[in-house]
Amino acid sequence: TQLLEQSPQFLSIQEGENLTVYCNSSSVFSSLQWYRQEPGEGPVLLVTVVTGGEVKKLKRLTFQFGDARKDSSLHITAAQPGDTGLYLCAGAYRTGANNLFFGTGTRLTVIP
Amino acid sequence: GAGVSQSPRYKVAKRGQDVALRCDPISGHVSLFWYQQALGQGPEFLTYFQNEAQLDKSGLPSDRFFAERPEGSVSTLKIQRTQQEDSAVYLCASSLGGTALGNTIYFGEGSWLTVV
Lengths: 112, 116
Prior knowledge:
The structure holds two protein chains of two kinds.
Chain A: E1 5-7, E2 10-14, E3 19-24, E4 31-37, E5 44-49, E6 55-58, E7 61-65, E8 71-76, E9 85-92, E10 101-102, E11 106-111
Chain B: E1 5-7, E2 10-13, E3 19-24, E4 31-37, E5 44-50, E6 53-56, E7 65-68, E8 75-79, E9 88-95, E10 106-107, E11 111-115
Parallel strand pairs in B: 2-11
Antiparallel strand pairs in B: 1-3, 3-8, 4-5, 4-9, 5-6, 7-8, 9-10, 9-11
């Protein structure tokens, strides 16, 4: 059961375009993380957000945690082919929780 | 190796066969997690170890699934009498702590199980 819904499920864009993917839930999370997963590999952590309204930037990637800590977004500026992959959000219900709930994922393809 | 290592990478099992999947976490990592990732889905939590203690096994889908970490390092996920719905990628992950802030979780490449 996926408690975190991500949209869009698939996204194909041209190199240089901007994009935003969304992660939504009806539950409040203590913290939320974003991962990128490439084919045949495990997810790799990109960022952790913990405070409602928090914005974090990682080069061309901007992550935002919703004020109510139920949703998050990932914005990529000037996408590059190397950004291609499966983007997963994952939430923890409480600080110190040992299991993460992953979203359904957004599969991004950046066309050169 | 520097990362989480899993074996076998690929396993084809006949329905009803038992399988064992191995995970070598990053040296010194206290926490170890198993996740199941079905095709086209995000990973789903199976179980969590802190050292040798299995503190959470709430995600194991049935009593056919069993995990152990007897010496607090290497872990094995065993699936008995495999069924077709067990076909998935089984991801192992480790971290110095749990999922508390500041503890990055490192995933292995996964063991791809196909039950035919």
